[in-house]
Specification:
Elements (H helix, E strand, L loop, with lengths): L10 E5 L6 E4 L5 E5 L7 E3 L9 E6 L2 E6 L6 E3 L2 E3 L1 E3 L5 E3 L7 E5 L7 H9 L2 H25 L5 H16 L3 E7 L5 E8 L14 H10 L3 E3 L7 H4 L2 H6 L3 E8 L10 E2 L5 E9 L7 H47 L10 E8 L7 E7 L4 E9 L3 H15 L8 H14 L7 E9 L3 E7 L5 E4 L2 E4 L19 E4 L5 E5 L1 H4 L10 H9 L7 H16 L8 E8 L11
Parallel strand pairs: 3-4, 4-16
Antiparallel strand pairs: 1-2, 1-11, 3-5, 5-6, 6-9, 7-8, 7-10, 10-11, 12-13, 12-17, 14-15, 15-17, 18-27, 19-20, 20-21, 21-22, 22-25, 23-24, 23-26, 26-27
Length: 566
């Protein structure tokens, strides 16, 4: 079947008893309708009396066609049972069940608007007389409110105008726009009087009982005369104190969203707030008034929902921009185009699993004929981890000036522990290598580097140690090891050894050692590629949850320092 050429022009108005009308675009052909998601339904209805494979709307040369796909009670269009039927604007689809869902087909998105609703309202005989008796002025107010709601004015100006028109239609004393606050509370966002004046939101005390009823019922509450209302509403303290006689509460809900790329589940959307109106006089609302209030509620919910989505999109773009800047800074701080140092060849790579990561490595000169190198892994991910890596990198760079590494590590540990609110710690390995092959290193909770010597792979150390920033009493010391000509140190983060395959098995130390064994003649660039390719082949496309960092350091002894065995 061909896809609908202009999906935005085809709308299904879903009418479920007791719920506001919901408007769903036809986004596929065939567009499947039924209960649940088992049959790949694009519009999922919750009524258990509706078959899982119920109906479909397909496109053809003659427009949109409805097909019965096996609904037990049959499919009806405008009251007549059909097996298939070409749909026309305004056709009503029913499912042969009492008090069940109905779907109104609209061939153009504009016909799901206020204007088409007004056309239907005007065709109702009981309302026609109302139109002749002053209802037209109310409809004019409604159209004005609708045009304002879809204008490009600032949001609060639009909402204020909407409240003014609602007050004018209902002859209320005041109108409020209420929105969700912290911890499930409600707060007044806008308050307007009957003369169009702004009212101080903090001075308003809307009836919590009426609001609670509207939220519990998830439907509009209209009390024309509170003397005749139910006991709870009639005796509410705020109503008694303010001498209120009529109250209207219209809860506002977001439209249902697709829960996947191909389906829409018709469940009530997120609660956006409520329109609240009250008066010290009893009111008399006609059928037209009630339909106008419902229409305004739908329009206001749509505007609030769109404003919320726009704000979220702006926030997402802002965060993406900040993350992009943070990533650029972090990447710029990593060694660029690693050069070989006297007696040392190096190469490395860092691949964060998010926009910014908590791993980093560095290589720098620590004095004449001495090279320093380190690898670090900060707990957590994202911006928080990236900020701490940047701080650590700045602190450790002081070692290039000849500062004692042990003193620096102990200072960093105390600093982070004293600022425990940071809530982060870091595992690190730091080493300095002299021209004569003397390696002096400090371990701080980081996995031991692997030593590749004459084709054999071993760990530098097996005993544990504390990360910096975790234990205030920890004291760090340096250890030494004599390297031989051609020895290669492999420093890595746990993103390599803890890489997972689809069966959630870890890559692990044994596999890494096996990959490195016997490759003492491979260049560092080749060795780096071999390790990364092995991890990638093991993962078999499984996405990784940790940064991957690898640093390779190879010692080259000068002729006078090389041992005969080397």
């Amino acid at each position: 079947m061909p896809e609908a050429s202009t999906v935005s022009e085809t709308i299904l108005e879903v009418v479920i008893p007791g719920l506001p009308h919901q408007f769903v675009p036809v986004t596929k052909s065939p567009f499947l309708i039924g209960r649940g998601s088992d049959s790949g339904n694009h519009l999922q209805l919750e009524d258990r009396r509706i078959s899982r494979k119920c109906a479909a709307i397909v496109t053809g040369q003659d427009g949109y066609r409805l097909e019965d796909r096996g609904h037990r009670q049959g499919i009806f269009v405008n009251g007549k049972q059909v097996e298939q039927k070409t749909l026309r604007d305004g056709d009503v689809i029913q499912f042969g069940i009492e008090d069940g869902c109905e779907i109104i087909f609209h061939s153009a998105a504009a016909q799901s608007s206020i204007e088409s609703m007004l056309t239907r309202i005007g065709s109702i005989p009981s309302i026609a007389g109302t139109l002749r008796l002053g209802g037209l002025s109310k409809l004019n107010l409604l159209l004005e409110a609708t045009s304002l709601l879809h204008s490009q004015l600032p949001l609060d100006s639009v909402l204020s105008a909407m409240l003014d028109h609602t007050i004018a239609i209902t002859h209320a004393d005041r109108g409020l726009l209420i929105e969700p606050g912290a911890a499930g509370s409600l707060k007044v966002r806008l308050a307007r009087g009957k003369d169009g004046e702004n009212l101080p939101p903090e001075s308003i005390a809307p009836s919590q009982t009426a609001l609670g009823q509207a939220m519990d019922r998830q439907a509009t509450v209209i009390s024309e005369d509170l003397n005749q209302a139910d006991t709870d509403l009639k005796s509410a303290q705020s109503i008694l104190l303010q001498h209120l006689r009529s109250v209207v509460v219209i809860p506002l809900y977001a439209m249902p969203r697709a829960n996947s790329a191909d389906s829409i589940v018709l469940k009530r959307g997120e609660f956006l707030g409520a329109i609240y109106l009250d008066s010290k006089r009893p009111a008399a609302f006609s059928d037209l008034d009630r339909q106008i209030l419902d229409a305004l509620g739908v329009e206001a919910a749509s505007i609030l929902d769109n404003a919320r989505l726009v704000e979220r999109e702006r926030e997402r773009q802002r965060m993406e921009q900040e993350l992009s800047i943070a990533r650029e800074i972090q990447q710029a701080l990593l060694p660029q185009g690693l050069r070989d140092f006297p007696h040392v060849a190096v190469t490395g790579t860092h691949s964060p699993c998010h926009a910014v990561g908590g791993d980093y490595y560095d290589v720098f000169s620590a004095g004449q004929d001495r090279t320093a190198f380190l690898i670090a892994d900060v707990s957590g991910k994202g911006l928080g981890a990236a900020l701490l890596t940047t701080m650590l990198q700045g602190a450790l760079s002081a070692m290039a000036l000849g500062t004692d590494p042990v003193r620096v590590f102990n200072h960093i540990n105390r600093f982070l522990c004293e600022h425990s609110e940071v809530g982060r710690y870091a595992t690190m390995f730091f080493g300095t290598l002299d021209g004569d092959g003397t390696l002096e290193y400090i371990k701080a909770g980081h996995p031991s580097p692997l030593l590749l010597r004459r084709g054999e792979v071993s760990e530098l150390y097996t005993e544990g140690s504390f990360p910096v920033g975790l234990v205030a009493q920890a004291e760090y010391t340096a250890a030494t090891l004599k390297l031989e000509d051609g020895d290669t140190l492999v420093l890595f983060s746990d993103g390599i050894t803890e890489a997972q395959d689809p069966d959630q098995e870890l890559f692990g130390f044994p596999r890494l050692s096996e990959v490195l064994a016997g490759r003492q003649e491979a260049s560092l660039e080749s060795l780096k590629k071999i390790v990364l390719d092995a991890v990638d082949a093991f993962a078999r496309g499984e996405s990784q949850s940790d940064d991957i960092t690898l640093l390779l350091v190879r010692y080259h002894a000068s002729a006078q320092n090389a041992s005969p065995a080397a």
